[in-house]
């Protein structure tokens, strides 16, 4: 290994508060060498992202101060003039941010934003930059890249926006790539391809990578060395293989014990709680099996032949095509598949946030596909949604306490004083301090914001929740805590969940049934044990095989599935989708028959 690309020496960052300066990271020391990947792991709020933002000098100057040294190829970034620092950002250092929608300009096209960085840092003409932007979009596997080059960020799914951010960060061939949760919004197949792409570019240019993540499977797959952070302190660091094999600190042991691992259900018929971990000792007790939903109940949600299409000048996007399923009280149906496959669109249609093109959606027997606004208001008392992007779904101008309080008061559930006590109780249930109610969304980490969103969804005590990537932004220990909370609430209140996720390890643990979506259609649906133990459709098998294994000893031993050419959902206006046939391979386990279309 050569001299370090990045050397962080005794970095301490403090935030200004009403009480004075409060240190949020203290005495951080690590190096990233050329061609090396260093992972920073720890709980949400531990200081991982603050460390990266300090290195990029992206924290507000009037409210933060950083001391120590941050050396990029020998130059101390903390002493550089701002004009010089602007040349470093996006040029010498590329950064993939945690929440792509807040990092992309909503009034500029994707192609324009990619080209802008190329013109600024690589001295290209706009024509050359647009051609290179198209190449970058194709490289990060965006379907129909040429036609989507001139679209705006709001037309992309969360996973697609994250791919754009990755393309933007790699556009200028940086010496250092800081990747802050770069694969959080990506399904496992695309995640594997993106990690392979980053590794390939790293080898080509001897780029250093600082990888901030809560996915210990990804850490095991890519990191040469790992830094463990806890409440602003660096508690342990070392080679990744040694750290996984023999963690020295109780907190590191607790972190590793919290990892959901595929294939650990031990024949459980229903969901199983995640292990309860003691961070002081690092010991974990095996989670108990949760009860099965009562048999013979009427479905709380019934979706029949749902189709959702969007007309564009170039044709028609078949986002969801002829999807049908029932969801019963006390049941969790997981909807899995690649980013852009129609999972979130299906969930939004059930909540009538997207208007169906065809089909029927019934909640408690009422058809909401054609319901009036007054009927929808009543429906939303019993049906709630946890959104994929917590920052975009929270009003930045009101405190999180008021965001949770608002639906309680709007629906007249409790008087104001009792409602405020309920807010404190909900914050405590999702692992946040009730004193945080007065803070605003920007004062929370990404994982903490997701917990606020979950608390808000629970405020109305609904019968049914669409959980759209509800735990994807959470670190492993909080993911276990929140997943257990959702299962406990389900068991005590008979809640039904449509659990939209790309995290197959969590899906295996939390779901009763699994529906696999591909290209807008359900290709396989059945009991959890049948899908994970006897997957029939080639796409389902590919999805399960792509799950990263949290064991550095197995790195490089799995044969990666060859990348597949991205298919476009865009069809001619006169296209008629073929009627799909399904065969029942076991009771309740259906798989789509192979067709050429």
Notable features of this structure?
Rossmann fold; alpha/beta; 21 helices; 26% strand; single chain; 597 residues; eight-stranded mixed β-sheet
Question: What would you note in describing this structure?
Answer:
It is a single chain. The chain has three domains: 1-92 and 175-246, Rossmann fold, CATH 3.40.50.300; 102-173, no CATH class; 301-535 and 561-592, P-loop containing nucleotide triphosphate hydrolases (Rossmann fold), CATH 3.40.50. Helix 15 packs across helix 16 (416-429). Helix 8 links the parallel strand 7 and strand 8 (208-212). The strands form five sheets. An eight-stranded mixed β-sheet has the order 18-19-20-15-21-22-25-24, with helices on both faces. Strands 6-7-8-3-9-10 form a six-stranded mixed β-sheet, with helices on both faces. A five-stranded antiparallel β-sheet has the order 17-16-13-14-23, with helices on one face. The chain has 597 residues and is α/β, with parallel strands linked by helices. 34% of the residues lie in helices and 26% in strands. It is globular.
Give the topology, please:
Elements: E1 4-17, E2 20-33, E3 37-42, H1 48-56, E4 64-72, E5 75-76, H2 82-88, E6 93-96, H3 100-103, H4 110-122, H5 126-139, H6 145-148, H7 158-170, E7 176-180, H8 188-205, E8 208-212, H9 216-222, E9 225-230, E10 233-239, H10 240-245, H11 250-257, E11 276-278, E12 283-285, E13 301-312, E14 315-327, E15 332-337, H12 343-350, E16 358-363, E17 366-367, H13 373-382, E18 383-386, H14 390-393, H15 400-410, H16 416-429, H17 446-458, E19 464-468, H18 476-493, E20 496-500, H19 504-510, E21 513-518, E22 521-527, H20 528-533, H21 538-545, E23 570-571, E24 582-586, E25 589-592
Parallel strand pairs: 3-8, 3-9, 6-7, 7-8, 15-20, 15-21, 18-19, 19-20
Antiparallel strand pairs: 1-2, 1-4, 4-5, 9-10, 11-12, 13-14, 13-16, 14-23, 16-17, 21-22, 22-25, 24-25
């Amino acid at each position: 290994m050569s001299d370090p690309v990045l050397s962080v020496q005794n970095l301490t960052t403090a935030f200004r508060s009403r009480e004075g300066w409060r240190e949020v990271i203290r005495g951080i020391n690590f190096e990233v060498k050329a061609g090396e990947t260093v992972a920073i792991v720890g709980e949400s709020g531990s200081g991982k992202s603050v460390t990266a933002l300090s290195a990029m000098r992206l924290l507000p100057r009037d409210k933060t101060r950083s001391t120590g040294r941050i050396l990029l190829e020998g130059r101390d970034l903390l002493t550089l003039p701002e004009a010089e620092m602007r040349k470093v950002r996006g040029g010498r250092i590329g950064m993939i941010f945690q929440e792509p929608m807040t990092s992309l300009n909503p009034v500029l096209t994707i192609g324009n934003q990619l080209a802008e960085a190329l013109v600024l840092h690589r001295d290209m003409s706009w024509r050359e930059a647009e051609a290179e932007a198209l190449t970058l979009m194709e490289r990060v596997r965006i379907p129909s890249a040429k036609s989507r080059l001139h679209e705006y960020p709001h037309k992309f799914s969360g996973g697609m926006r994250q791919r754009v951010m990755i393309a933007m960060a790699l556009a200028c061939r940086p010496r250092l790539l800081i990747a802050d949760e770069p694969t959080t919004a990506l399904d496992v197949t695309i995640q594997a391809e993106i990690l392979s792409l980053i590794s390939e570019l790293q080898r080509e240019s001897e780029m250093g990578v600082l990888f901030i993540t809560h996915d210990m499977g990804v850490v095991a797959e890519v990191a040469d060395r790992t830094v463990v952070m806890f409440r602003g302190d660096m508690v342990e660091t070392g080679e990744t293989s040694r750290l996984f094999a023999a963690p020295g600190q109780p907190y590191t042991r607790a972190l590793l014990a919290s990892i959901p691992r595929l294939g650990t259900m031990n024949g459980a018929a229903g969901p199983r709680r995640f292990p309860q971990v003691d961070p002081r000792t690092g010991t974990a007790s095996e989670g108990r099996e949760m009860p099965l939903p009562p048999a013979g109940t009427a479905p709380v949600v019934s979706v029949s032949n749902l189709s959702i299409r969007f007309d564009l000048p170039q044709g028609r996007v078949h986002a969801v095509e002829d999807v049908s399923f029932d969801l019963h009280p006390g049941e969790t149906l997981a909807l899995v598949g690649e980013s852009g496959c129609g999972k979130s669109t299906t969930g939004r249609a059930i909540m009538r946030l997207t208007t169906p093109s065809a089909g029927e959606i019934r909640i408690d027997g009422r058809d909401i596909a054609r319901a009036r606004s007054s009927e929808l208001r009543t429906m939303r008392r019993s049906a709630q949604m946890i959104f994929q992007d917590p920052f975009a779904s929270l009003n930045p101008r009101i405190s999180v306490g008021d965001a949770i309080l608002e639906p309680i008061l709007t629906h007249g559930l409790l008087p104001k004083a009792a409602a405020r006590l309920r807010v404190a109780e909900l914050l405590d249930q999702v692992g946040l301090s009730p004193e945080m109610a007065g803070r605003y969304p920007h004062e929370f980490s990404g994982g903490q914001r997701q917990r606020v969103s979950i608390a808000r969804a629970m405020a109305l005590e609904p019968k049914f929740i669409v959980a759209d990537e509800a735990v994807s932004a959470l670190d492993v220990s909080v993911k276990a805590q929140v997943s257990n909370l959702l299962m406990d609430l389900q068991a005590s209140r008979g809640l039904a969940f449509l659990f939209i996720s790309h995290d197959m390890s969590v899906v295996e643990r939390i779901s009763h049934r699994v529906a696999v979506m591909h290209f807008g259609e359900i290709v396989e649906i059945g009991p959890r044990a049948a899908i994970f133990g006897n997957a029939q459709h080639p796409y389902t098998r590919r999805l399960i095989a792509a799950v990263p294994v949290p064991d550095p000893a197995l790195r490089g031993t799995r044969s990666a599935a060859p990348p597949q050419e991205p298919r476009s959902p865009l069809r001619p206006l006169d296209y008629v989708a073929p009627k799909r046939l399904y065969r029942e391979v076991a009771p309740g386990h259906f798989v789509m028959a192979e067709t050429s279309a």
